[in-house]
């Protein structure tokens, strides 16, 4: 069945709500903007005095869009009241237009992580919780089956970025999770904690980071957590995008680009073949097929570029993508037509 689009009013409301949240973040600038360049990439910081000390707070990668918002920081601060009223109004419009809101447990967790700076410092929401937010980015309606939660809420970040930023979250995610009734699940054999289980339900929060070989547990200093390293994850979380989770007046988070999410799902579906993960593999293929069907119509160049990049990374990548597509003839035909 073809995907149904949200109304034009809903799509405009979503983009306006996203813009207001990005402006709200820029309005929090305290001091002056400091630029640092690492490996040819620009990173911006808020440089300000606290007592007798100078402090630096990471703001984000130095894109033209972020620079333009920061240049308007004083103006944006003055409009705080009207902006927040606008956020409330737009969130109400989205609910009335049929956007599926984030459930209370997930929404409260995302809000607490956002306030602590998890997404500002490079954390990216991945998995089904991120997939649900493509209803706004792509302007399409999802049904309840497509958004059925696995119970997992996964966050990912690059280890090198976390080390290089020189900044930390304002509240440790572990403390936030304990306050929300999550218990740490020590790993084996080293007892490092990278996942947390809700003690009154089935929700599981996991922290992940890209692996380039051995899939070990690594620290993410900026986020104050350890993370399980996974191969292929570097492809997924490269160049993430901002998104709004519809909880209260919206929560600003960061998610993978939809075309990367779709191709990555083909890869992980093959990794999960057989055993207890077969159901998850079927769900991975279903999410990939849905997104590829939409992107082939609305963003074919982005999809073709993402596929070509993944295939260019080596024979193992091509093998895993091909193995999943062998079970998905309609999706395979769509991708062939892109070429």
UniProtKB/TrEMBL annotation:
Organism, scientific name: Gemmobacter caeni
Taxonomic superkingdom: Bacteria
Name of protein: Nucleotidyltransferase-like domain-containing protein
Annotated Nucleotidyltransferase-like domain residues: 104-310
